[in-house]
Amino acid sequence: MTTVILKPDEPVEVAIRRFRRAIERTGLIPELRARTAYEKPTAERKRKKAAAAARLRKQIKRSLPPKKRY
What we know:
mainly alpha, 3 helices, about 65% helix, flat, Ribosomal_bS21_sf
């Protein structure tokens, strides 16, 4: 469980910001969103395959030399 201890003279808003960052690092929010509704196995495979294709496109785009601007 993620906990944030308030430091002396620390505003609550700053502590909340630290808490949100800590939760993002653990990956809790995406997992909760994924578990809110059932996803069919075929839909899950389709989503993962699309994400893999996007990662591959991004990797190929980064490996190419930059386009000439003239």
